[in-house]
């Protein structure tokens, strides 16, 4: 959204007229522009649940921000809608850390600078605009933190009820934010219980789903995930097309949005190559799938990197890394702490999983999957103010 003084946080949603239909990202089945939080019906029947993507008519001929409404609205489902000033996050070069890591160029996209402190605001702006357009009165989601606070803020701006299914041990900073923003919180011990709660509210009561609720999972619903394409567009508008992009990943919404944005920029002839996308994960999940295990399996493991915890994989993350010729890197909690401290020495206060990308660079260099002459972009997913303080590991 423009940040001129005349901008308001709530405009009547205006759908992008270029948006023509939805398409399965796996089997290419074409579907009308209707909400389908379970993803592709054909792939669901085949026991390989798969996300949908939006298909636009002619792509814009240039990579320039829109004159009004959402900054990249012509590339997104909505031209105008609910905004709190998300996007236009800083893209910064870190020459000192680059030299420490032994790489030619290192830059960061600081998504913690979004209104509620995380990249999730890009999804909330588009998805809550969708919820308003279809006349929903309640938005419901399952979240470990960042998405919950973001949804609560955008629902407050839109005048919609927000219900969040969370874990019982959600960090107190999130609990306080949800209470202040007026969201209703339901706490559970297990991920599957959270998703069952969301399923009931969506399928039985008609609430609008902001996130997945199926197991095996799909990504979050398409009208929200499309919002992440703007990260790629902002990079391109700044002339920043890195060789590699590293993304802390749980179920791959941001990863897919980046892939989709860069792919369409390339199809429109506006960039000349696709960066290789790397999912950084706290336990081996996608890594195991890329080595041949079924994506629909379960991959249990514990981590303090709560924003990217969970034991499942989605096909959208598999496709994003395979189609961009990237892959997956596992960084444990000790590695994430080291990386977060490296970023802190550069002045960046980010959540634990955002630091894992720094350590992932070292691993990819050691494996010769990144060359020392290349440019690596790290997506800093959220600010560090929600991480529980643990004096044993933060010194
Ligand atoms: Zn399909």
Briefly, what is this?
The chain has 395 residues and is of the alpha/beta class. It has three domains: 73 residues, no CATH class; 185 residues, 3-Layer(aba) Sandwich (Rossmann fold); 103 residues, Rossmann fold (3-Layer(aba) Sandwich), CATH 3.40.50.
Task: List key phrases describing it.
395 residues; 13 helices; disordered N terminus; 18% strand; alpha/beta; 6-stranded mixed β-sheet; Rossmann fold; binds zinc ion; globular
Helix and strand topology:
Blueprint: E1 10-15, E2 19-24, E3 30-31, H1 41-45, E4 52-56, E5 78-82, E6 91-93, H2 95-101, E7 105-110, H3 120-133, E8 138-142, H4 146-158, E9 161-167, H5 172-181, E10 184-188, H6 191-204, E11 208-209, H7 222-225, H8 229-237, E12 244-248, H9 253-267, E13 276-281, H10 286-290, H11 315-323, E14 327-330, H12 333-345, H13 352-366, E15 375-380
Parallel strand pairs: 7-15, 8-9, 8-11, 9-10, 12-13, 12-15, 13-14
Antiparallel strand pairs: 1-5, 2-3, 2-4, 6-7
The structure holds zinc ion.
């Amino acid at each position: 959204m423009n940040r001129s003084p005349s901008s308001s946080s709530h405009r009547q949603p205006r759908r992008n007229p270029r948006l023509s239909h939805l398409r399965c990202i796996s089997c290419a089945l074409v579907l009308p522009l209707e909400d389908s939080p379970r993803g592709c019906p054909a792939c669901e029947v085949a026991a390989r649940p798969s996300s949908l993507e939006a298909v636009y008519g002619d792509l814009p001929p240039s990579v320039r921000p829109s004159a009004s409404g959402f900054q990249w609205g012509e590339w997104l489902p909505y031209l105008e809608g609910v905004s709190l000033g998300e996007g236009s996050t800083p893209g910064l070069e870190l020459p000192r850390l680059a030299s420490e890591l032994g790489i030619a160029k290192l830059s960061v996209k600081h998504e913690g600078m979004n209104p509620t402190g995380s990249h999730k605001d890009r999804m909330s702006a588009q998805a809550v605009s969708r919820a308003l357009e279809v006349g929903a009165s309640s938005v419901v989601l399952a979240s470990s933190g960042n998405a919950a606070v973001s949804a609560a803020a955008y629902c407050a701006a839109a005048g919609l009820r927000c219900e969040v299914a969370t874990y019982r041990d959600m960090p107190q900073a999130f609990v306080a934010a949800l209470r202040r923003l007026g969201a209703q919180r339901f706490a559970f011990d297990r991920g599957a219980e959270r998703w069952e709660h969301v399923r009931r509210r969506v399928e039985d009561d008609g609430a609008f789903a902001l996130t997945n609720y199926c197991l095996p999972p799909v990504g979050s619903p398409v009208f929200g995930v499309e919002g992440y394409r703007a990260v790629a567009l902002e990079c391109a508008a700044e002339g920043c097309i890195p060789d590699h992009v590293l993304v802390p990943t749980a179920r791959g919404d941001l990863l897919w949005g980046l892939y989709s944005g860069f792919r369409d920029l390339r199809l429109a002839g506006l960039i000349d190559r696709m960066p290789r996308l790397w999912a950084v994960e706290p336990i081996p999940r996608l890594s195991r799938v890329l080595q041949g295990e079924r994506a629909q399996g379960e991959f249990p493991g514990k981590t303090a990197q709560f924003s990217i915890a969970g034991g499942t994989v989605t096909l959208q993350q598999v496709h994003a890394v395979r189609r961009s010729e990237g892959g997956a890197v596992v960084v444990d909690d000790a590695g994430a702490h080291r990386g977060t401290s490296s970023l802190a020495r550069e002045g960046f206060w980010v959540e634990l999983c955002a630091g894992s990308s720094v350590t992932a660079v070292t691993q990819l260099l050691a494996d010769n999957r990144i060359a020392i002459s290349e440019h690596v972009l790290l997506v800093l997913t959220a600010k560090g103010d929600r991480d529980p303080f643990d004096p044993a590991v933060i010194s």
